[in-house]
Structures are given as C-alpha cells and as structure tokens.
Amino acid sequence: MSIAGRNSILLRTLLVDFSNLRLSPATQQIREYYHRPKLRNPYWFVRKTRAANEDNLTAENQDFIKERVHDKFGPPAIIKGVSTYQNAVQSLVKAEEREKVEWSPKLRRTGVLARKIGNYPLWLKNGKKIHTTLLHVVDNHVVRYIPPEEYKPTQKPTVHDVSKYGCLLVGAESTDPSLLTKEYCGLFKDSGVMPKKHLARFLVSPEAALSPGTPLNVTHFRIGDFVDVRGKTIDRGFQGVMKRHGFKGMPASHGVTKTHRRGGNIGAGGEKGRVWPGTKMPGHMGNRYRILKGLRIWRINTKYNVMWVQGNCIAGDTNSMVYIYDTILPLRKPQISPPFPTYFEDESEEALPEEIWYETVHDFKDPSITFAPES
C-alpha cells in the first residue's frame, strides 16, 4: 500500500475517534463557565477582599477583635439578613458649611445605591391595583468628589458634554475593615466613613457636589417623582430563542419533527442570501446592565429607608444592588425643586412622618368607605 493510502486510512480513523468523543458533565459545566461572557471591572478597580487567615487566632481573640471593631464603628445592624455596620457619625458636614445653591432643571443631582428586596402590590383610591418593587437604601455615604477638570471617564459617557460634570463616589453597606485589602481601605482614608461593600459613581453638576461623609437616605427623593433604576439582569446562561426572545415555537404538524423549539429560517435567498446582523438567535442570556426609566415613587418609609417604585420588572434578582437616580426623560423631570443637593435633617425642622403616601394611593389605615352626613 502506498504512503498516501496509509495516511488517508489513518486520517479517517482519527476522525472517527474524535467524533465518538464525549465530555463528562463536569467538564461541560467548566467549559460553559469559562466561555460565558463576563462583565469585567475596569482596570482601575482594586482588589476588595483578602484571603483571611485566622489559623493563629483563638476563638477568644476573634471575639475580642469583633468587640474592638464594634466599639470603634458602632454595633452591627442586620439589614435583610446581611450584617453591616452603621457609622456612629451621621454627617460630617455642618449646617453652616453648606453652600446654598438655587436649583434649576438643568442641574444634575447624585443617585443612591439600593437593594432590591421584593415586589408588593398597592391600590389606588379608585380601586385600581398597581405593582411595585421595594428598594432598600442601605447605609449610603459620600466617599469622594472628583471635580470636572480632574474626572476622566474610563468608559463611554452617557451624556453629551461630560466635561461640565463632576463625579461623586458613593458607597453602601459598611463592613469590617479587617476583611478587606489595604489598597481598598485606602479609598476611604480621607472620607471619614467605614469601608463599604459596594461603590458607585454618579455624574453630578458642580453645584450639586457633596462633601465626603454626607449620608444619603431615602428622603433624597420625594413621593410622586420619577426615577431611573439600573440593575444587572439575572444570569440565565445559554438559552434558545423561545426563552431568550419569546418565540412561539414551530407547530407540531406538516411533518415537522424534532424542531419544535428551533428558530427556523434565519436568512434570505438570492443576492441577499446571508444572515443579517441583529438576527434573533440562541445565545447567552442575562448578566447585562439594563435601565428602566421613568418609574414613579408611590410610597416611602423613612424609618427603614424603603421606597415603593412602579413596576415589578426591575433588573436583578432579590437582594441584588441597583442604582437609583433622577430620570433623564424630559417630560418626567421634576418641575418643583427637589431636595438639593440632598435632604439634610436639621434640628430646627420637624421630623418627617414614618410613612409617606402618594396622594392617589390608598392608605390602609384610612377607612375605605365613607358615609355622607344626613341632611
């Protein structure tokens, strides 16, 4: 037999062997995990957590360290099953040091970080049912302000002229500094607040700048105002067209077999016989940031810093973090001055009520049926 014939036989044997190769389920899961597209942090993000090694610490020493942390930064608070630390200093900005700036619709305020804690229905006074999402503003403080001349965005900005906006770094959920790296704790060195688990950056006008250490609560917004909520969708992995794009599926007739959940034809014929860009096809679903714009605030609880926001399809799973800021929709921007640059609780003013309802929402403490007096 010639050398070419032997090579052809060997090649066919190798092809048959590779065609019969099957991967184990564990190996398939590892391949899917590493081939999954990820939202990677920018290069300027520092490592947050460190490898805690407590082999040389006894149980008594661990309790002693926790007591020292509590004595310095206050007792821990449990927020939706998550242990956090409330800073003993509520505000590092005195009332005399605040600059009084007149608000205008062109000015841009900061936003807050909140935790999505579930959905809940409300009823209007006319009997209509509305769906809302509960967002918990957890322990927000201003960490740093970057003026417009020093701020250099690393990603494509969402505004037309970014040179006239500064950047406000906001942190949420204080945590034990011993669990974090030295570089990450250095971000909070000059802020006067505890290191935070979550950080967010908001574009603000120079007139709306806040000093480091300023607390941000749910009173930063008002009932009836419209906000935009940005969150990361649930990671669904690789999905077909029926789950990813809502296809109905092919009919179980006309001789169709084993293709009931497929996408069908994906291209045209003739001169344009190709697959057009943007065609809905199977692929990775979720794990992407999405923004819902123009959501009304129906109810606010000032005691627990919870707001009821319109809709039940805010991106993210339960207990995930979302960004909340004033809406950019021109017809839903506030016409009356909101708390600018944020709400400050002064001693001279009266305390806000614990529950604040929108005027058209039915308060269940009020009677649902009223009787007219007899004439």
Automatic annotation (TrEMBL):
Family annotation (Gene3D superfamilies): Translation factors
Biological processes, Gene Ontology terms: translation
Gene Ontology terms, MF aspect: structural constituent of ribosome
Start and end residues of each stretch annotated as Disordered: 249-279
Cellular component GO terms, alphabetical: mitochondrial large ribosomal subunit
Keywords: Ribonucleoprotein, Ribosomal protein
Superkingdom of this protein's organism: Eukaryota
Annotated family: Belongs to the universal ribosomal protein uL3 family.
Protein known as: Large ribosomal subunit protein uL3m
Species per Swiss-Prot/TrEMBL record: Hermetia illucens
